[in-house]
Amino acid sequence: MAKIAVVGDSTSVAGFRPLGFAVFPVEHAEQARALWARLSAGEYGVVFMTEPVYEAMEDLIAEAMDQPVPAVTVIPGAGSAGGVGEAKINRAIERALGTSVLIREEED
């Protein structure tokens, strides 16, 4: 059975350990990138990543996009401004439909 991994800064991932997830605290992009070979080898079916980690590894993840596992999901990190997850979903919709269907509200 495939496992679930969570990768991000130690503050963001600490709460996932009691839930039985494999937790990988990383403090630098190089640590996360070095970890990708292990995460993408098939042992983990789902990998949750904080937004800063995802941004640092986006090129590596894109190379494995056509593989069935792992499914990579972006989660907000502690103190993260957000937006990466939304952008990822928008890109997937654009790829599937050829156009964006998300409507952004204008800021006042």
What does this structure look like?
- With 108 residues, this protein is an alpha/beta fold.
- The protein has one domain (3-97): Rossmann fold (3-Layer(aba) Sandwich).
- 39% of the residues lie in helices and 20% in strands.
- It has 4 helices and 4 strands; from the N terminus they run βαβαβαβα.
- It has helices at residues 10-13, 29-39, 51-63, 84-97, and strands at residues 3-8, 22-25, 44-50, 71-75.
- The chain has a 4-stranded parallel sheet.
- Helix 1 links the parallel strand 1 and strand 2.
- Helix 2 crosses helix 3.
- The model has no long low-confidence stretch (mean pLDDT 82).
Going by helix content, strand content and strand pairing, the class is alpha/beta
Please, how many domains?
A: 1
Total number of helices: 4
Largest sheet, in brief, is: 4 strands, parallel
Unreliable spans are none
How many strand units?
4
